[in-house]
Amino acid sequence: VLCAAQDFDFFYFVQQWPGSYCDTKQSCCYPTTGKPSTDFGIHGLWPNNNDGSYPSNCDSNNPYNQKKVSDLISQMQQSWPTLACPSNSGSSFWAHEWEKHGTCSESVLDQHGYFKTALNLKAQIDLLQILRSSGINPDDGFYSLSSIRNAIKNAIGYTPGIECNVDASGNSQLYQIYICVDTSGSNLIECPVLPNKKCGSTVEFPSF
Ligand code: 5GP
Ligand code: 5GP
């Protein structure tokens, strides 16, 4: 029997620090459900190839359907909050992530499985707790990029990718953490290719 092989090599599981999304010239808007908790939030689960390329928008016949994830919505509001303007419930962010990225792993994870898998990974990897245990706290100034990377590597066993953005004064700040996951979505792996994102050598970890 021939099975369709999945057309990607691994996932990036990407979490964002809300303080850094909001502390920019562009600012942010809280979701209609209220200010998110002081925690990393899910950005997405992104199919990727070993050469660094990635597929996107793979199946326009399988649009986001909230009915398929109705049992997960309260967890998504908690762990996958939107911060883009204008304020909304989050469904436009979730729809964007499913349609751009999730449809490219639909041979492995259906819509419910895609969101459930990301929520499971979030529950498994408590980045704020990991950083705090290493003395890396929000609203406490600047940290070396290597101290952040090492704290996460020592806790999860694999080297993360780190992306920064820039605040209104031009400071580099910790924005997103990329962790690699196998094609099943359930096992962390060493990244076949680290995302090509940049940070200053010291980065701010702003409050939220
Ligand atoms: P940016 O250009 O802001 O880094 O990324 C814009 C969007 O492109 C991201 O939100 C994500 O959807 C996609 N993207 C950027 N870099 C990667 C990557 O390395 N892998 C995958 N799968 N998607 C990416
Ligand atoms: P990407 O294409 O980079 O995966 O996703 C970014 C898209 O999702 C953008 O269109 C952005 O406006 C939207 N979006 C909605 N809420 C958020 C959020 O909280 N964080 C980020 N990074 N993008 C968001």
Summarize the structure.
Belongs to the RNase T2 family. The chain has six helices and six strands; from the N terminus they run βαβααααβαβββ. The protein has helices at 18-22, 73-79, 91-100, 111-124, 127-133, 145-156; strands at residues 10-16, 41-48, 142-144, 161-166, 172-181, 202-204.
Give a structural overview.
The chain has 208 residues and is of the alpha+beta class. It has a single domain (10-204), classed as Alpha-Beta Complex (Ribonuclease Rh, Chain A), CATH 3.90.730.10. Helix content is 26%, strand content 18%. It is built from six helices and six strands. The protein has helices at 18-22, 73-79, 91-100, 111-124, 127-133, 145-156, and strands at 10-16, 41-48, 142-144, 161-166, 172-181, 202-204. The strands form two sheets. The protein has a four-stranded antiparallel β-sheet. Strands 3-6 form a two-stranded antiparallel ribbon. Helix 5 (127-133) packs across helix 6. The longest helix is centred in the middle third of the chain and has 14 residues, at 111-124. Bound molecules: guanosine-5'-monophosphate (5GP) (2 copies). One guanosine-5'-monophosphate is lined by residues 12, 46, 48, 54, 100, 195. One guanosine-5'-monophosphate binds at residues 12, 46, 48, 54, 100, 195. InterPro entries: Ribonuclease_T2_eukaryotic (IPR033697), RNase_T2-like (IPR001568), RNase_T2-like_sf (IPR036430), RNase_T2_His_AS_1 (IPR018188), RNase_T2_His_AS_2 (IPR033130). One of its GO terms (molecular function) is endonuclease activity. The active site is at 43, 97, 101.
